[in-house]
Design goal:
Elements lengths: L8 E4 L5 H12 L3 E6 L2 H14 L4 E5 L5 H10 L5 E4 L14 H29 L2 E6 L12 H17 L8 E8 L5 H14 L3 H9 L10 H11 L11 E4 L9
Parallel strand pairs: 1-2, 1-4, 2-3, 4-5, 5-6, 6-7
Helix pairs in contact: 1-2, 1-8, 4-5
C-alpha cells in the first residue's frame, strides 16, 4: 500500500534506538524525509547510517535532548515546518513510589508529558495552516493497564493522554490528526529492563519469569520494533485521515479489557 506521504517531512523524537528508531525507519521507507535526534552521538549516527542504507527519504541527525527547551529549539530550527511529528522520550526508571521525591516526579512529567505537549504547541498551527499534519505520541499500554513498578511513567503518560483528548478533535477538519500509540512489551532495551525489574521485585528467576510473562500475552511473544514502526507509519498516512483522538494499543493481546 502506498501511504501517500512520499516527500513529507517528519520529526521523530528520541530516535536513535527502540521504538523511535523503528518509527523513523518505517517513515523513511515510505519516502518521508526524517529528522532524528538523541542525546548520544554514536548511537544516533549509527541509526542515521542504517536509515540511509535502507533507502527512501533523506535522514538528518541532530544531537539534541527533546526533554529540554534547547533541544526542541534545535529540532524546529532544523525542520521548521514538519508535516509529521512523532513524540517520544525515554521512560523514567522503575521503582517503588515511596522512594520518589518531588524532583523525580517533575523529571518524569517533563520527559513524558510536557515535552510532547510543547512540541505539539509549536507544530500544530503550522500543520493546520498547511492542511496536513500527523502527530503520533508514543505512550504505553500502562495508560490502560498500569504497571506497579512504573508509577512515574503511569502518571506522566496518563496526563499526556488526557491533554491530547482535549485538543485532538478540532484540528481534524484541517486534515491534522493526533493519536497516541500504546506499545505493550515490544523487544527493546527498555522492555527487557522492565521485565528484569519485575523479576527482581518478585524474587523470580529471570528466564522463568520471561516464560511465564509471555504466556499471558495472546501472541505469546514480545512485539517486534518493525511491527510497531509500521503501525506508526500507517497512522501518519493519507489513509488514516479519519483516525484521530485515539489510543491505539499494540500489545499482542496483553490488555484484557473490552474497551
Amino acid at each position: 500500500m502506498d501511504l501517500g506521504i512520499n516527500g513529507k517531512k517528519a520529526i521523530v523524537c528520541a530516535s536513535s534506538k527502540g521504538l523511535g528508531k523503528a518509527s523513523a525507519m518505517a517513515l523513511a521507507r515510505e519516502g518521508v524525509d526524517v529528522w532524528i535526534c538523541a542525546r548520544h552521538r554514536e548511537a544516533l549516527e549509527r541509526t542515521a547510517d542504517e536509515i540511509a542504507a535502507a533507502g527512501g527519504g533523506k535522514v538528518q541527525a541532530l544531537v539534541a535532548d527533546v526533554t529540554t527547551g534547547q533541544g526542541r529549539d534545535q529540532l524546529l530550527a532544523a525542520c521548521p515546518e514538519p508535516d509529521i511529528l512523532v513524540n517520544n522520550a525515554g521512560g523514567p526508571p522503575p521503582g517503588d513510589f515511596r522512594d520518589w521525591d518531588q524532583q523525580d516526579w517533575f523529571d518524569a512529567i517533563n520527559a513524558n508529558m510536557f515535552s510532547a505537549i510543547d512540541m505539539i504547541r509549536r507544530c500544530l498551527d503550522g500543520m493546520t495552516g498547511r492542511g496536513f499534519g500527523r502527530i503520533v505520541n508514543i505512550t504505553s499500554v500502562a495508560v490502560k493497564m498500569p504497571v506497579s513498578v512504573l508509577g512515574l511513567s503511569n502518571g506522566a503518560r496518563a496526563g499526556l493522554t488526557g491533554f491530547v483528548s482535549g485538543i485532538a478533535r478540532e484540528p481534524a477538519q484541517h486534515n491534522v490528526t493526533i493519536n497516541n500509540l500504546l506499545p505493550g512489551y515490544v523487544a527493546t532495551d527498555r522492555m527487557w529492563s522492565v521485565l528484569e525489574s519485575n523479576a527482581q521485585a518478585s524474587g523470580l528467576d529471570q528466564a522463568a519469569h520471561r516464560e511465564s510473562f509471555f504466556s499471558k500475552i495472546g501472541a505469546r511473544r514480545p512485539g517486534d520494533p518493525d511491527e510497531f514502526g509500521a503501525v506508526c507509519a500507517f497512522l501518519c498516512s493519507q489513509q488514516a485521515a479519519y483516525i484521530t483522538a485515539q489510543n491505539i494499543l499494540m500489545d499482542g493481546g496483553l490488555y484484557p479489557g473490552t474497551f
